[in-house]
Amino acid sequence: MDLVENQGMRVLSARNVAKQLNSSTAPVYSGFSSIDELKREVLNKSEVLLIAYIKTPYTDRVFLNMGVGIALFSRDQRELYRTLFLKKNEFKDIVDGFLSTMKDRIREDHRFTKMPVEGRNSMVDKMWIFAHGLATLICVGFIDDDS
Question: 130 with 67: CB under 8 angstroms?
Answer without folding.
Answer: yes
